[in-house]
Every structure is written in structure tokens, then in C-alpha cells.
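pasting for the record
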Amino acid sequence: MSDGAVTSVPERPVGAVLFDLDDTLYEQSQWLDGAWRAVAGVGAPGIDESALLETLRLVAAEGSDRGGIIDRALARLGRADVPVAPFVEAFRRFQPSKLTPYPGVDECLAALAAVVPLGLVTDGDPVLQASKLDALGLAHRFNVVVYSDELGGRAARKPAVAPFAAALTELGVAAHAAVYVGDRPDKDVAGAIAAGMRAVRVLTGEYRGAPNDPEPWLTVGGVAELAAALGPVLQMGPGSAAGLDVDEREL
């Protein structure tokens, strides 16, 4: 993943780092696989559980943004007549006991948090997103967590400015002094830029192959590379660590 930083880092100090959740801090396919298993396990007359699970996976792989995955999977199995509500409810109720962050993510967050405040801005059902964060064991790393749907439903989702602005207000940090880290150019990068922040693109998850459009301030292979990339411009506060070498610092 060492496509590495493609944009040089200016000297303007960074006073806060905000993050996306899905496919930025962990591989979202982990969560989706468990959710599809829960959906397939609902059971319905004439529907084979294993066939439904496989079809859900295939339909989801065509692009998660298209929506209607459960409806399309049932239709593909020739069962569009089956009520979809129980399957949707199983999806919404799924809460994983454990999710695994990308390698080096927790160490990087700990190193950054010793220097600047951290925030999380994520789209989706707040209950589901909160359960993911808990399953990852990362909630304690963030000074503020903003669930965009709580600000106005889907209309408030990235690239809308509202969730970024809400996080910055809670942190008490100006947009020009913060960076936002995410995997999607069309939502994370575009939204951060619109909010007046610097955008860091990570090449992980479903959209790792998407072009840099719009162009981020910085591109890194993954969050694990972030501490080293931002080290020269992080604004050191009182009591901050002297450096960000996650191999040498005691976390």
C-alpha cells in the first residue's frame, strides 16, 4: 500500500485530526459479512439460507451505494414476493461482538491523540455506527464523535458540510487548522474541502481504486502511515509527546 504520499506536506500547523470510520479505520466487509449472515438467517419458506447469503454478497459486491441490496437479492432468487421488512430489521439489529481495525490503526490513533485532539465523522444509522466503533475498541481514542444522520438524516451525510462543522465546533478548532482522513474522494475528500479542511485520502477499502477526484491535500496507503506523514506539521500542545514514532513511544 505504499503508493505513499503523493502531495508534499506544507508547513501550516495541524491542530486536530478527524477520521471517517468505514473502510478507513477497518475493512467494512468484515461488518457486512456478519450483517448478511444475520439477514440470511431470518428464514422464509422456499428460500435457501446459503443461496440467499451468497446472493446478498454478490449483489453487495456490485456497489454498496446502489442501495436496495436485500430487495435485489430476493428478486434475483425469484422471490420478490417475499416481505422484505423482517430481513431489513435483521440488518438493522445486527451488532458485531468484535471487529478488527486495519493493522497499526490503534497505535497511530494513540500517537496522534498524545499531540492533538481527534474526532470521528461518520455516515449511517447512528446505532449501527456506534456498535461498530464499540466492536473495534476505538471509541476512547476520540474527543468527539459525530453521526451525520443525527443532524438531519441522509441530507446531512458527507459531502455535506454540516457534520464536519459540528465536529470542529465541539473540538473548538478552526477548519483551516484541521485535517480529515477518509477513503472516499466523493464524500470524504470533497466534504472536507467544502468545509475548509485539508483532506487526507487513504487507499483502503471498497473505493481504494477510485481516482483522486477531487485531489486531496495528502494521500497515504493507510492510517498506519499517518502519524509519520503528519508529524512535521502537528501543532504541539502543553504536555504533548515530543515525537510520533509509534515504534519507540510508550503507548
